[in-house]
Design a protein that fits this description.
Strand order of the largest sheet: 1-2-3-4-5
Number of strands: 5
CATH class: Alpha Beta
CATH topology: Transcription Regulator spoIIAA
Structural class: alpha/beta
CATH architecture: 2-Layer Sandwich
Length: 116
Amino acid sequence: MHEFVDDNEIVKVVLSGIVDLSDFLAIIKELEASGRHQRPRLWDLRQCDFEFDGEDVRTLADAGRAIDQDPIKIAVLTDSDFVYATTRVHTAFRSGEGVEQRVFRSYNEAMSWLRE
């Protein structure tokens, strides 16, 4: 399950439950269709569990690359060691394309970074 929360210029994507690649791909399409993909994003993953493998992470990075044509900031918020590590791998796949993506364990730090 997911919801979008618009917070001024930042789009918060809040996920809960078990999330797999198809869920993420559907959310990315929804972000693009709504035009929200052009704004800084906070992916709040504190209430979800991943069902991913290594190839899924690469596929997800490719899907994100397809919609993020302009420079943008993306913050990922998690309190799970597994999600943190998986997101770091995802960030490495996306490096060098004009997207600034960082992983945070603190909501306030993530929001502060997005607003810089």
